Amino acid sequence: QVQLVESGGRLVQAGGSLRLSCAASGRFLSTYNMGWFRQVPGKERELVASIRNIGTTYYVDSVKGRFTISRDNAKNTVYLQMNSLKPADTAVYYCNAGGTAGYWGQGTQVTVSS
Fold this sequence. Notes:
The chain is mostly beta strands. It has strands spanning 3-7, 11-13, 18-25, 34-39, 46-51, 57-59, 67-72, 77-82, 91-97, 103-104, 108-113.
Protein backbone atom coordinates (compact mmCIF):
# COMPACT_ATOMS: atom_id res chain seq x y z
CA GLN A 1 0.00 0.00 0.00
CA VAL A 2 1.19 3.52 -0.86
CA GLN A 3 -0.04 6.77 0.64
CA LEU A 4 0.62 9.94 -1.36
CA VAL A 5 0.32 13.48 0.02
CA GLU A 6 0.60 16.48 -2.29
CA SER A 7 1.52 19.98 -1.19
CA GLY A 8 2.54 23.30 -2.68
CA GLY A 9 -0.58 24.39 -4.50
CA ARG A 10 -1.78 27.96 -3.99
CA LEU A 11 -2.89 31.11 -5.77
CA VAL A 12 -0.21 32.64 -7.99
CA GLN A 13 -0.13 35.35 -10.64
CA ALA A 14 0.40 34.52 -14.29
CA GLY A 15 4.09 34.23 -15.07
CA GLY A 16 4.89 33.01 -11.58
CA SER A 17 6.30 29.71 -10.37
CA LEU A 18 5.29 26.94 -8.00
CA ARG A 19 6.82 23.69 -6.90
CA LEU A 20 4.47 20.86 -6.03
CA SER A 21 5.66 18.05 -3.82
CA CYS A 22 4.34 14.52 -3.45
CA ALA A 23 5.51 12.67 -0.38
CA ALA A 24 4.97 8.94 -0.20
CA SER A 25 4.79 6.51 2.67
CA GLY A 26 4.25 2.80 2.82
CA ARG A 27 6.47 1.78 -0.08
CA PHE A 28 9.58 3.08 -1.74
CA LEU A 29 8.70 5.29 -4.69
CA SER A 30 11.80 4.14 -6.54
CA THR A 31 9.91 1.06 -7.70
CA TYR A 32 7.09 3.03 -9.32
CA ASN A 33 6.56 5.10 -12.40
CA MET A 34 5.25 8.43 -11.09
CA GLY A 35 3.00 11.03 -12.62
CA TRP A 36 1.32 14.35 -12.07
CA PHE A 37 -2.22 14.73 -13.40
CA ARG A 38 -4.54 17.71 -13.31
CA GLN A 39 -8.29 18.13 -13.50
CA VAL A 40 -10.69 21.02 -13.91
CA PRO A 41 -14.44 20.73 -13.26
CA GLY A 42 -16.29 19.12 -16.14
CA LYS A 43 -13.17 17.73 -17.80
CA GLU A 44 -11.29 14.45 -17.63
CA ARG A 45 -8.16 14.13 -15.57
CA GLU A 46 -5.15 14.90 -17.75
CA LEU A 47 -1.61 13.53 -17.51
CA VAL A 48 0.72 16.51 -17.22
CA ALA A 49 4.09 14.87 -16.64
CA SER A 50 5.51 11.51 -15.72
CA ILE A 51 8.83 10.03 -14.72
CA ARG A 52 9.65 6.37 -14.95
CA ASN A 53 11.62 4.50 -12.32
CA ILE A 54 14.56 4.60 -14.72
CA GLY A 55 14.26 8.40 -15.02
CA THR A 56 12.67 8.81 -18.44
CA THR A 57 10.29 11.77 -18.49
CA TYR A 58 7.19 12.72 -20.46
CA TYR A 59 5.38 16.06 -20.71
CA VAL A 60 2.12 17.01 -22.32
CA ASP A 61 2.74 19.53 -25.09
CA SER A 62 1.08 22.41 -23.25
CA VAL A 63 3.67 22.35 -20.44
CA LYS A 64 6.85 21.45 -22.32
CA GLY A 65 9.62 23.91 -21.54
CA ARG A 66 7.76 25.24 -18.50
CA PHE A 67 7.29 22.27 -16.14
CA THR A 68 9.89 19.86 -14.81
CA ILE A 69 9.19 16.61 -13.02
CA SER A 70 11.82 15.11 -10.77
CA ARG A 71 12.13 12.52 -8.06
CA ASP A 72 14.24 12.14 -4.94
CA ASN A 73 14.12 8.47 -4.10
CA ALA A 74 16.08 9.00 -0.88
CA LYS A 75 13.31 11.32 0.35
CA ASN A 76 10.54 9.24 -1.23
CA THR A 77 9.27 12.41 -2.89
CA VAL A 78 8.35 13.52 -6.40
CA TYR A 79 8.28 17.14 -7.47
CA LEU A 80 6.70 19.21 -10.20
CA GLN A 81 8.44 22.52 -10.81
CA MET A 82 6.05 24.83 -12.69
CA ASN A 83 7.38 28.01 -14.26
CA SER A 84 5.78 30.68 -16.46
CA LEU A 85 2.38 29.69 -15.17
CA LYS A 86 -0.71 30.55 -17.19
CA PRO A 87 -4.37 30.84 -16.19
CA ALA A 88 -4.95 27.68 -18.27
CA ASP A 89 -2.81 25.80 -15.74
CA THR A 90 -5.45 26.34 -13.06
CA ALA A 91 -6.59 22.92 -11.83
CA VAL A 92 -6.42 20.43 -9.03
CA TYR A 93 -3.12 18.60 -9.38
CA TYR A 94 -2.89 14.95 -8.39
CA CYS A 95 0.13 12.78 -7.75
CA ASN A 96 0.00 9.21 -9.04
CA ALA A 97 2.11 6.13 -8.46
CA GLY A 98 1.92 3.11 -10.70
CA GLY A 99 -0.44 4.38 -13.40
CA THR A 100 -4.16 5.11 -13.42
CA ALA A 101 -4.95 1.81 -11.68
CA GLY A 102 -2.37 2.57 -9.01
CA TYR A 103 -2.30 5.04 -6.14
CA TRP A 104 -3.52 8.64 -5.97
CA GLY A 105 -3.06 11.55 -3.64
CA GLN A 106 -5.88 13.80 -2.49
CA GLY A 107 -4.94 16.64 -4.83
CA THR A 108 -3.69 20.18 -4.37
CA GLN A 109 -5.33 23.26 -5.88
CA VAL A 110 -3.31 25.48 -8.20
CA THR A 111 -4.94 28.75 -9.21
CA VAL A 112 -3.24 31.10 -11.66
CA SER A 113 -4.70 34.58 -11.86
CA SER A 114 -4.40 36.76 -14.95
